């Protein structure tokens, strides 16, 4: 089998966003759309000849077809070996783990994460580098530049391979090994988490529900929670990955995962509830009667991680994306460790992790992770929680309340205005930008603006500068609002408004979130002229 080079014409829209290239399925199905982008990725990887590539995805519609295309292209481009998850499946954190463990040159992950799937749904392609983490901006910029100029791709013409049988085959001169998608990941979890303590907790009657949302985490959660840790069968629900996620948004938040949320608020709530997203990198944590915000979860894990074997020697530092609440910073200060603030998206944590500046990191969007891989990791976060519950013997809700009593509470919410007109969204951001210098000192209802700026990040490791990463307005009353536009949407623009207010008065730690945030919401809406500019009186999703 000799490689064939096929001429092509470029597409102008193959610009990776917050997390890879995400588009509607029909866009990906255009002639050579996938081939062009994957060839652009390969053209941007130096010294790939003979190297190992990792390949897998979240199992959504088009996953299998695209895996086959990428295998043929990889063979045409001289890779030595591809490790592909059985059935074309690999969760995002498992792909990161496999890349690191097998010293691959990188990996391609097929996922649009929490976005809906199916023939009219979303699809995505993401490249992760040799450290297991999302390609940094310098690389995604190079891939985009290459995609805009591409004139040919090279592949080996061959029939589809059988992806459902473990073991090795070949494609031209390249080896293809179908691997168990769970094994390497499960082994890593066993090193980090006290499996014995968690097993004992399950054996003594601890009950949990894990909702895999018909997405990729099902096989991982079933193997680890029910298989290795002895949780009762049925602990993991919606455990079979489906191409369209059963028609749902596989987004683990109280809105899209309301069954679990409702169960946890009711009289039959088990001791612990958790869920993960389409590609397994996000997590939702719900204690009996109490939803734990991702920002609080990061703070609590930072405070208690030393209880797990993988973190027994303490943490080096913690990082959070800028819109994530400052709860983790308070814990870092008490531990005397570094706290970093990065732009939204996991790619910005990579350098801090690689340089050993941080051990844990997280985002308000239900992403938490550590230096064990270079992606956020939904099931890992759940296992670390279980380890902490087993080690302390506390109820999850009691742990959270004790945390607030000690550090205060960062009331938090995110309002998303989805699929608004792009020009209107850009106009809103531009108008805000222009207002910034005059804002300090301004009164908005009962709140007074203390600072207002647009977040820019200078990477402390490589010095690279990333600008326009969200507009933030802080108030003297310990409140903050952040505005930014999503970089993962596939239709129009999504305006995200992040709202928070800190309280440490012991009498004000258990109030309704909406009540505490109401003045901040009102200030945000008037400041950004949301309704006049977008026509939306209310957000589409509140999480
Ligand atoms: C969103 C989240 C961000 C996350 C990204 C990818 O990005 O806000 O925190 O890193 O999705 O997560 P944006 O640009 O739409 O706000 V995933 O689980 O979709 O890979
Ligand atoms: Co995801």
UniProtKB/TrEMBL annotation:
The answer to keyword Phosphoprotein applying to this record is yes
Q: Which InterPro entries match?
A: A-D-PHexomutase_a/b/a-I (IPR005844), A-D-PHexomutase_a/b/a-I/II/III (IPR016055), A-D-PHexomutase_a/b/a-II (IPR005845), A-D-PHexomutase_a/b/a-III (IPR005846), A-D-PHexomutase_C_sf (IPR036900), A-D-PHexomutase_CS (IPR016066), Alpha-D-phosphohexomutase_SF (IPR005841), PGM (IPR045244)
- Residue intervals of the Alpha-D-phosphohexomutase alpha/beta/alpha domain: 14-150, 184-286, 296-407
- The catalytic activity of this protein is classed by the Enzyme Commission as 5.4.2.2
Keyword annotations for this protein? Answer: Isomerase, Magnesium, Metal-binding, Phosphoprotein
Q: Which GO terms describe its molecular function?
A: phosphoglucomutase activity
**Entry annotated with the keyword Ribonucleoprotein:** no
Give residue spans, biased composition: Polar residues. 1-17
> Known catalysed reaction(s)?
alpha-D-glucose 1-phosphate = alpha-D-glucose 6-phosphate
The segment annotated Disordered runs over 1-21
Which co-factor is required?
A: Mg(2+)
Signal sequence span is none
Q: Which PANTHER family match?
A: PHOSPHOGLUCOMUTASE, PHOSPHOHEXOMUTASE FAMILY MEMBER
Q: Which family does the similarity line name?
A: Belongs to the phosphohexose mutase family.
Name of the protein described by the UniProt record: phosphoglucomutase (alpha-D-glucose-1,6-bisphosphate-dependent)
């Amino acid at each position: 089998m000799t490689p064939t080079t096929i001429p092509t014409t470029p597409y102008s829209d193959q610009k990776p966003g917050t997390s890879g290239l995400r588009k509607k399925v029909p866009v990906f199905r255009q002639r050579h759309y996938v081939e062009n982008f994957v060839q652009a990725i390969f053209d941007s990887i130096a010294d790939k000849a003979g190297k190992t590539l990792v390949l897998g995805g979240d199992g959504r519609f088009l996953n299998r077809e695209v895996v086959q295309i990428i295998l043929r292209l990889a063979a045409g481009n001289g890779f030595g070996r591809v490790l592909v998850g059985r059935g074309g499946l690999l969760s995002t954190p498992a792909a990161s783990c496999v890349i690191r463990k097998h010293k691959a040159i990188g990996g391609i992950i097929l996922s649009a994460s929490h976005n809906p799937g199916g023939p009219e749904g979303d699809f995505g392609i993401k490249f992760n580098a040799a450290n297991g983490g999302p390609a940094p901006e310098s690389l995604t910029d190079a891939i985009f530049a290459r995609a805009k100029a591409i004139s040919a791709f090279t592949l080996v013409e061959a029939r589809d391979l059988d992806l459902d049988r473990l073991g090795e085959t070949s494609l031209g001169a390249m080896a293809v090994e179908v691997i168990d998608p769970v094994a390497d990941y499960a082994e890593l979890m066993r090193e980090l988490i006290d499996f014995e303590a968690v097993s004992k907790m399950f054996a003594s009657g601890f009950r949990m529900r894990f909702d895999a949302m018909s997405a990729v985490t099902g096989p991982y959660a079933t193997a680890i929670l029910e298989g290795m840790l002895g949780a009762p069968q049925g602990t993991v629900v919606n455990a079979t990955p489906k191409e369209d996620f059963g028609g749902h948004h596989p987004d683990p938040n109280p809105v899209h995962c309301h069954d679990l949320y409702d169960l946890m608020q009711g009289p039959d709530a088990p001791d612990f509830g958790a869920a993960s997203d389409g590609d397994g990198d996000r997590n939702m944590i719900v204690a009996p009667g109490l939803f734990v915000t991702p920002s609080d979860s990061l703070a609590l894990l930072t405070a208690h991680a030393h209880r797990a074997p993988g973190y027994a020697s303490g943490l080096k530092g913690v990082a959070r994306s800028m819109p994530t609440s400052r709860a983790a910073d308070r814990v870092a200060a008490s531990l005397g460790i570094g706290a970093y603030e990065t732009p939204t998206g996991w790619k910005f944590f990579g350098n801090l992790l690689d340089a050993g500046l941080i051990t844990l990191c997280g985002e308000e969007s239900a992403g938490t992770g550590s230096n064990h891989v270079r992606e956020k990791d939904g099931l890992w976060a759940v296992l670390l929680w279980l380890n902490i519950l087993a080690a302390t013997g506390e109820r999850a809700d009691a742990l959270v309340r004790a945390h607030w009593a000690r550090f205060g509470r960062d009331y938090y919410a995110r309002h998303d205005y989805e699929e608004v007109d792009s020009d209107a969204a850009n106009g809103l951001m531009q108008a805000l930008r222009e207002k910034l210098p005059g804002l300090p000192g301004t009164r908005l209802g009962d709140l007074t603006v203390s600072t207002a700026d647009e977040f820019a990040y200078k990477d402390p490791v490589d010095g690279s500068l990333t600008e326009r990463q969200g507009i933030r307005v802080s108030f003297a009353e310990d409140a903050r609002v952040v505005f930014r536009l999503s970089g993962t949407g596939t239709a129009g623009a999504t305006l995200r408004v992040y709202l928070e207010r800190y309280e440490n008065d012991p009498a004000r730690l258990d109030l309704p979130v909406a009540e505490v945030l109401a003045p901040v919401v009102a200030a945000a809406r008037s400041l950004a002229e949301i309704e006049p500019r977008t026509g939306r009186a209310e957000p589409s999703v509140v999480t």
